[in-house]
Amino acid sequence: MNTKKLFLTATILILITAGLHTMGHFSPPPEDASLADLQQHMEQTRLSLPMSMEPSMMDVLKSLSLTMTILLLALTCSNILVLRLAAGNARLLTAFVHLNQVIVIALVGLYSTYEVFPPLVCFAVVGFVLLMAQWSIFRQKR
Predict the structure, then answer these.
(1) 20 to 30 A from 46, CA-CA: which of 3, 86, 117, 142?
(2) Phi and psi (nearest 5°) for 46?
(3) What is the pLDDT of residue 29?
């Protein structure tokens, strides 16, 4: 497979990860008494922030969760834009393969540190495809 196809595959996998993450965000919580207690406590615990803002801990968690969706969609869009502009510009494509590798390595490190299995697996797969794209770039230079 050539570099562009592998990069497109990684981009599609990032988009799928964004979709799965968003579905998880909006799905009902598991029916577990201890998790229900935790969720209730997070909804009742409020932070005192500037500008008279007092979000609950649940509000903070939900906003950070949706931030991941937004940033994954932004990465997908920028990758698609690069794929459209990279015709005849191997350096641009190579730079974005490397940028995506750095982002994915950071996310794999984050999710392995905090032991969050679903995104860890998703980003490990994306990372493997990006590694194949890197190998394709290396082979083309030889």
Answers:
(1) 117
(2) -120, 150
(3) 84
Q: Which domain holds residue 74?
A: 3-141
Contact of 24 with 14, CB cutoff 8 Å:
no
Return the structure tokens found at 6.
Answer: 């592998």
> What tokens does 118 get?
């679903």
The DSSP call for residue 29 is P
Q: Give CA–CA dist 73/19, Å, rounded.
A: 9
pLDDT in tens, 79-121: 999 999 988 889 999 999 999 999 999 999 999 999 999 999 9
Q: How many Å separate Cα 48 from the centre of its chain?
A: 29
Q: Domain total for the chain? A: 1
Three-point CA angle 133, 138, 142, nearest 5°: 145
Nearest by Cα to 1 from 125, 140, 98: 140
Which residue is listed with tokens 């579905």?
A: 23
